[in-house]
Structure formats: structure tokens, C-alpha cells
Amino acid sequence: MTTLPRITCFILNVLLLWSCSLSTPAPQREVRVKLLADANLRERSSRWLEEARELIEAASDYFEREFGIRFVPSEISAWPNEERVVSTALFLKQIMQKIPLEDRQGRYDLLIGLTGARINPYLGKARVDRIGDCQEGLGNYVVSSVSTPFRTRGRDSEPELDVLALIHELGHIFGAKHTKDTASIMNEDFDHRIGFDEENRDTVLKNKFCRFARSTE
């Protein structure tokens, strides 16, 4: 015999499923990425391919949770220049000059160079080619130093320093700027900060679907 509580429970379950079916996930932005690992990183780690992939995936997991932006590593390869990287500024300049955004594998939105070089804090800061906006387009190039061998600790783990550096720079790509807010990941001293300040969060969301700039434009 069907009781009133069972009927009520059934109706509530149906209504809950119906309401869930009406809700749609937030729009996603996929960014096609090419990763380059320099000789320092490749010599330091026999698993440099996995290390590079896991670094971008860890940063991507953060951006997907916070902003609905996914970074897809379409290609991971060796930086062809065997000269040692002495500064991230020079590394960025060389990559922009020598590595096109389009090759036989297709066109990339973003090219990320990773270096395992031990360089001083100023010359070793991660860098981007531009702070993006919708009018001029988002940046296309990022370089970041990898200070220690990286292994992922899971999708929901707290980001490590090298992941935070990459998240910080990817924030610049989407228009975020340095802030005096000491609790923000966009503060220049972002060590162990895991959240964006409200202003920069709004900026990233505003620029979420901006086009990427092209060097030929």
C-alpha cells in the first residue's frame, strides 16, 4: 500500500530532478596551449613531459573551478635552443621571436615556456607578453620558472608555489593586474595566496571570452 509520505517523497524527488535539468553549467572557455620545456628542465627531470603537463593541468583545475576557463595542453615539446636560459625576460623574447603561434599541429591561443634554470628572483620572475583586454586582445606568451620537481597531488589539492606562479601569470593574460591586497594571488608576493581579490576576479570574468591577440595583426 502506497503511503502519503512515500507519495510526497516521490513528488519531491521528481521536482528536484526537474529543477536540476533546467539549470545549465556556466559557459566554459577552452584555451589551446603549447608548452615548451628548456634544456635545464629536461636535464633535471627524466619525467619533464609529465611535469609540464601536470603543472598546466593544476593551474587549469584552479581556473576551471574559479572562472570556468580550461587550459588544454595540445602539445608539449622541447625548447629547440640548447643555450641555457639566464633570465625569463630573455627567454620570453626568444620564444616570441622564434616560436610561431601556428604550426603543423594547428593554431595555439597561448604558448608557455617553462625553465628549470636556477636564476635570481628578479630575473627569474614569471612573465607575460601583455596584460590582456578585449580591445587589444589577450596575451599569447608566458614564461615561468619551475623551482622544484613537480608531481600533482590531486585535482583539489592546494596549489604549490610553481603552480601559484603560473596561476598569477595566467591571471595577467586575462587582464588581472598587481594589487596591494596582501591576501590576493595577484599581489607581487603571492606565496601561499590562493584567492583573487574582488577587482581582479571581476576583470578575469569580464575578459573571459575576449579574443587572443595575433602577432600578424
- How would you state the average pLDDT, rounded? 84
Low-confidence segments, given as residue ranges, are 14-24
Number of strands: 7
Helix content: 25-40%
Which structural class do you get from the secondary structure elements? alpha/beta
Determine Rg (CA atoms, Å): 21 Å
Number of alpha- plus pi-helical segments:
6
Tertiary shape: globular
Portion in strands: 15-25%
Q: Main sheet?
A: 5 strands, mixed
User: What string, H for helix and E for strand, traces the elements in order?
Assistant: HEHHEHEEEEEHH
Indicate the topology.
Elements: H1 4-22, E1 29-37, H2 39-44, H3 48-67, E2 69-78, H4 88-98, E3 102-103, E4 106-107, E5 110-115, E6 127-128, E7 141-145, H5 161-173, H6 198-206
Parallel strand pairs: 1-2, 1-5, 5-7
Antiparallel strand pairs: 3-4, 6-7
